[in-house]
Write a structure and sequence with these properties.
Layout: E1 3-7, H1 14-21, E2 27-31, E3 34-35, E4 41-42, H2 49-55, E5 66-69, H3 73-81, H4 83-94, E6 98-102, H5 106-111, E7 127-128, H6 135-140, E8 144-145, E9 150-153, E10 156-159, H7 165-177, H8 179-186
Parallel strand pairs: 1-2, 1-5, 5-6, 6-10, 7-8
Antiparallel strand pairs: 3-4, 9-10
Helix pairs in contact: 1-7, 7-8
Length: 195
């Protein structure tokens, strides 16, 4: 069973956390909890990123298949300003693991550095999307911006915002568990047809 690590910080957007977290087909660990953007309290498996780093001898990427970053401007800003989070993103990317970011959390990918993987094998820029409010920041950092609701490029999944949270979660299920599993999850949820 794939394992996901989901980061949550003060001000993370609830729907962007809960929707990917709710899928029972991917084992998850939650780290860093506090209250979210509407003062909903989340109880994490780990209280601090450093607790997880210490427990895993800083090789967190060896224990998880995907790192998921929910958006929400205050939460994303916290991710961008935390050295341990930026290192975690860098290690996941550097070791060929999946990273998924929605809404303003795409800025954490940018803040983690414009490493070589931000360029595709054909020399083009890696495609990502985000909340429109941070589009300029993402483009200025050298990433190719897309208006698509969900973008998968390399091992990076990005999505636009709260209204795309279900599509974001289903895309994570698909890349982690396959198209058949996605169809199995999507059917009973009576999701709107995707574009």
């Amino acid at each position: 069973m794939p394992k996901a690590l989901i980061l949550v910080a003060d001000g993370s957007e609830e729907i962007e956390f809960v929707t990917p977290y709710d899928d029972p087909r991917v084992a998850k660990q939650l780290i860093w909890g506090f209250s979210m953007s509407r003062n909903i309290r989340i109880v994490p498996d780990y209280r601090k990123v450093t607790d997880l780093l210490n427990e895993t001898a800083h090789n967190v990427y060896e224990h998880y298949d995907i790192l998921i970053l929910p958006g929400g401007a205050p939460g994303a800003k916290t991710f961008c300003q935390n050295y341990d989070v930026l290192q975690l993103i860098w290690h996941f990317r550097n070791h060929g693991k999946w990273v998924a970011a929605i809404c303003a959390a795409t800025t954490a990918l940018v803040a983690a550095g414009n490493w070589a993987e931000a360029v595709t094998p054909d020399g083009g820029k890696m495609r990502v999307t985000s909340h429109p409010s941070v589009k300029e920041e993402v483009e200025e950092a050298g990433w190719q911006y897309s208006e698509e609701r969900v973008v998968v490029d390399g091992k990076v999944i990005t999505s636009r915002g709260p209204g795309t949270a279900m599509l974001f979660a289903l895309t994570i299920v698909e890349v982690m568990c396959g198209k058949d599993k996605r169809a199995e999850v999507e059917g009973p949820m009576v999701c709107a047809e995707t574009l």
